[in-house]
Amino acid sequence: MTSYDPTVQCHTGAAPPIGNCKHLFDSVRTTETRNTFGPPNDPQADVKLPKELHESGHQCKAIIRTAGETDTSSFYEVWEAIVAVSGMCVRFGHAGTALQRGTWTSDDRLPSMTRQTDTMESGAKKKLSISLEQEPRPVHEA
Question: Which of 4-13, 98-107, 111-120 has the lowest mean pLDDT?
């Protein structure tokens, strides 16, 4: 077992229903397999960002984004971030974002040890963020 130190920011905006976010927890495939997350034009990325995860009721969505280039993480770590944002923001009626997720990467993009601070001596940063938001309701024309 390891500790989890979330960097979560709550913000204004429509909070998704907490019950629907709990359904999202159950639907995320929580594997510890390392995935390469990155922008759509990065051939090294096997998960193209931004990526949205939806629960079956389509009222709660998680959006995985990158603040830079490619980074590595697992869907278990994505799940951890969803749970943290839900517990720290959504249950109090706010949308929110977990920042500084992912693994340190060097210039040649080889993963190194995960660290709990936001910078290393090389200046590398964890680049992934995971937001929980309410799904926009579809507009029905009369």
Answer: 111-120
